[in-house]
Amino acid sequence: MIDSHRIRHFRADRVWTSQGWQEDGVIGVDASGHVAPAEGPAERLGAWALPGMPNLHSHAFQRAMAGLAERRGRTDDSFWTWRETMYAFAAAIGPDELKAIAAQLYVEMLKAGYTQVCEFHYLHHRPDGGTYAQPEAMSLALIDAAREAGIALTLLPVLYMSGGFDGRALAPRQCRFGHDVQAYLRLLDNLRKQETGDLRVGMALHSLRAVPEHALRDVLAAELPRDMPIHIHIAEQIGEVQDCLATRGQRPVEWLYDHVDVDSRWCLVHATHLEDHEVAQIAHSGAVAGLCPTTEANLGDGLFPLGDYLDAHGSFGIGSDSHISISPVEELRWLEYGQRLATRHRNIATRREGQSVGEVLWRSALAGGTRASGLSIGELSEGRRADVIVLDDDAPQLAARGAASLMDSFLFAGNAPLVRDVMVGGQWVVRDFHHRDEAGIAARYRAVVEQLATS
Ligand code: ZN
Predict the structure, then answer these.
(1) Structural domains for the chain
(2) Most buried of the four, 55, 86, 148, 325, by CB within 10 Å?
(3) pLDDT confidence tier of residue 289, bands split at 50, 70 and 90
């Protein structure tokens, strides 16, 4: 029985629902932080309230190296030269550094309107590859950081075993990423004991090049919850597609679908390089394509075939990945703009005449991100976790905007932050543009990056 006295009520002139804007909407929030039946007097939040966005792909430590790989190297720069910078940077990061960096990142995510993050976490061991006294120390640093910041977390410990499709051993700098299957499953079990309404543990396979076929079979056959999310990097780079073709005779997506029963638990991150039949395979399987447009642009990855994928009714969500940008607005804007530049057409994300691009993008990314996070979020409907963002009534960008044009103005007009208040699981974590602990978290972050810069 719900104790109706313990339900708080919030009202906005318009509340975003799966059907669009609801006029004079009331959101009930129960004591456990979930959306409850709405009745009774309500506190007014503002003009526009909508569900917070899940961020389906993050490598938290990379936040501290954003901007440090933008100087041209001796040869043609690519993802692979960027990866060298990333490996060198990662070598100096232990649990305390990771916690400080992740807490700062998560504050920035909340202020941008992300209320859930899927952390694709592979920095497991000490820099020399030895295990920490507490083997899951780095995972716990991420959990602590998320709790401190107040963002909900889907922790995806990564299985990373080989340095290439040929099964070669990990290079010295990759040793801290590695597990055998048994140790990996123990890690998952230990972390699953900590699960709560705002912490879900899922599985991540780094990529087909890093997880040999026998290991893939073994982890997928392990006794784990049937609804556990499974994430994998797939087909981000042309070189990766060519290596897969050379060693396995198939492209990565083709190979995966030929060998594994891929369903809606799966999130295929950076499914960038696809042929038509692979687009159809992903769309029909119900898997979510995990798209990270600003990182994919920054790394020179290539463009996801969004129009074909939407024609095939595919699901997608967005992630900030390397954190060169931390903004759902910018991810969705660039998802659409990349397509416009490539096709020399406009309004690609919607296929229906008269439909709003902004509405389709936000709604689709909410649904795909929710599925990838493995939690009941993404809508302000009864029983879902109460993750709410409230936009700034006073922002000039939103002046004279009605329900028909609000989402397009939110996503495409200007650069001033429009997210004023943020609630996660019924708790206000950002009010009037300020996070509750932002000064202390930023000071600790600054001390850590200054020390990393001199070490
Ligand atoms: Zn990634």
Answers:
(1) 4-51+380-438 (2.30.40.10), 53-373 (3.20.20.140)
(2) 55
(3) very high
